[in-house]
């Protein structure tokens, strides 16, 4: 299907306008950035994209190439195109993937930002950023939280059970038949058991509060 010459001319003018405005921003970032028109065509990109798209996806990026051809060798092609189409509805779409050979995969975050001009969506600005360090830190934090969870479980179920048994047995005692000395012993035993129970509860609460949030 042949494009309308006027529409094509307007698209070229719009692209040049956008490229001029976004060029400095694209080059100032450490992320891979490129702009896709609504017909899935790469219109422009930054230096990072030129350097890294080939090793990442097996195809060199260039103006005019379609995203289908650019990601032809990538397992992400169908998912990428689906999310790109969703972004054209005005939504900010984010996804995270392990990219690369199985023995050296790296986490990347892909952001899709729709771009409008004269109240009309003309494409999407794509950002691909290495988040491997963040994912590694998240993994460490998750491991620490799992260990804390084990501590919480042990404290709340294993340690508190004997204390609860002691307090229960004290309640069952017929204290009226005990001697004055034995009553004092039972009293101190009950106080000590309750104090220990309070310490365990505070330890559990502290463990919960100490769980690290993954941002």
Features:
215 residues, alpha+beta, Beta-Lactamase, 2 domains, 5-stranded antiparallel sheet, 19% strand
Number of helices: 6
Which CATH top level class of the largest domain fits? Alpha Beta
Report helical residue fraction: 55-70%
Going by CATH, what is the homologous superfamily of the largest domain? PAS domain
- By CATH, the architecture of the largest domain is named 2-Layer Sandwich
List strands and helices in order, with pairings.
Elements: H1 5-28, E1 32-37, E2 42-45, H2 47-57, H3 67-70, H4 77-87, E3 93-99, E4 106-117, E5 120-130, H5 132-172, H6 180-210
Antiparallel strand pairs: 1-2, 1-5, 3-4, 4-5
Helix pairs in contact: 5-6
Task: Give structural notes.
This protein has 215 residues and is of the alpha+beta class. The protein folds into two domains: 5-130, Beta-Lactamase (2-Layer Sandwich); 136-210. It is 57% helix and 19% strand. The protein has six helices and five strands. It has a five-stranded antiparallel β-sheet, sandwiched between helices. A hairpin with a 4-residue loop joins strand 1 (32-37) and strand 2 (42-45).
Briefly say what this structure is.
The protein has 215 residues and is α+β, with helices and mostly antiparallel strands. The chain contains six helices and five strands, in the order H-E-E-H-H-H-E-E-E-H-H. It has helices at 5-28, 47-57, 67-70, 77-87, 132-172, 180-210; strands spanning 32-37, 42-45, 93-99, 106-117, 120-130.
